[in-house]
Amino acid sequence: MADHHTPTPDGSGPAYRTAGPEDGDPLVLLTAPQDTAGDWAPVRDALARGRRIHAPDLSGPTGGGRPAPLVRDDLLGFLDALGLDRVDLVGHATGALVALLAAQAAPHRVVRLVLADLPPALPREPPAAPGRITAPTLVVNGAADAAGQVPDARMLAIAADGRPVHQAAPAEFATAVEAFLAEVPDSELARRWLAGSGITQTGESAWWDADPPACSLTADDVSDQMGWLVFDDEDLGLADRLRVALGLMDLLGAHPLLAGQIHMAHLGPRGPLPQDVLWDGYRRRLEAVRDHEAYPSSLWLDWFEDPGTAGTAFAAVLGDDRHLLLPGAPEPLVRRARRVLEHSGPVGWDAKAETYRAAARFPALHHAVFRAVLRSYHDLYGDLDPVQGLTLLDGLDLAPGTEHLAPLRRVLADGHRHHYASPQAWDAALDR
Description:
This protein is an alpha/beta fold.
């Protein structure tokens, strides 16, 4: 590993060390400020296979005892000086905290994030905002509250006897990190696909189109311009086109040219789309702590409102797993169930009734079941059996005075199936 590089010709900025092929994907290694880049030596060669490592010494005049947010700013300046737009970050101890803060402040610049021996957030440090950590994250031997600091992180424990994990168990640590970094997120595939058309991200919701006439773009602009082209890209296999489309939804949010094209491609001459990629992609995002609003909206508007796909889609994202809705069910499954239930109004009653009953046996989902029944009545394409719906409501433990509960019970007791079939019934129930 070469020593004593500096990021600018005048020698300003932190010294840093490099390893690996110059054309490799950039990987930045961060130690605690009191340590040096040489501390990565036990795993350097393994991590440098196929990657260009940059290991700055964020100490002395640029680190020392300074607060982590200031060191984070040094790190972002370091990336700017080297022209590294997007990097993988691996941090150790308070270097992991600096990496976390960088991923929070500039999520569009971090491809993947590895946090080793992550300490609890210090009282003087601002807590990480859960919704801002968008990079896939691996936490190795993190603090007890690491999941709270980094929602949706993958947690891994490696025996280290209190020593730095990359020094105590270098082979095991390097193997885990290599495997994690080898996974290319859908959002990264989407970024690379956009970059092929000269479009790069410059901020959380800001983009730049380098093709003449060069101009700045919003997320909606990118969706309007590129969202309908993915499934026409003959350079990509069908599974990769689907992954790019899902990645664009991750990056750009809900937009009919993104979500709608997936549904149309599934039903079109190139379909059906690969089921594992399609539905596993939806399930993972529906289980995330981070709210990917594009996905429940897409289920509702594209898949559930189409009678030809509603039953199959509902089964894939929840119905086939209803037997798992038992006491002690994992929280990710509960999050998925809650989001699907609350958007499932248009699904045919026969396709969803058993799942509703299974969810009603799980107290944490009682309010979601109520919302599901309510939307089944009010949705323009909703479907509901009034007798069975009322029986479901009778078994739910809901807060006294739950809004809309009383009139919903009244219309169901009177045998009404749907708001739009008898719109006066709801108004009458509100007056009773």
